[in-house]
Specification:
Layout (H helix, E strand, L loop, with lengths): L31 E2 L5 E2 L6 E2 H7 L6 H8 L5 E2 L1
Parallel strand pairs: 3-4
Antiparallel strand pairs: 1-2
Length: 77
Amino acid sequence: MTINNTPEAQPEATASVQVPAPVPAVNHVAVKQSRDKAQYTRQQTGHSVIKHALLGMFVLWIPTIYYAASPNHYWHA
């Protein structure tokens, strides 16, 4: 039994295959655009905890409960 160490007899090294990273999904959000093609986005404002605590009794705190449960709203003092 002979061992042949020539480069032709060596098993080829497995080539490292680089798998491309998955492309993240892009959420296309409609943005308001004026006649001059400027894009506008509305600045989000919070809801006052003090106002809702003091005036909530008149509407049975329904908006307060909604704002507290909704992920699209936040509170400020």
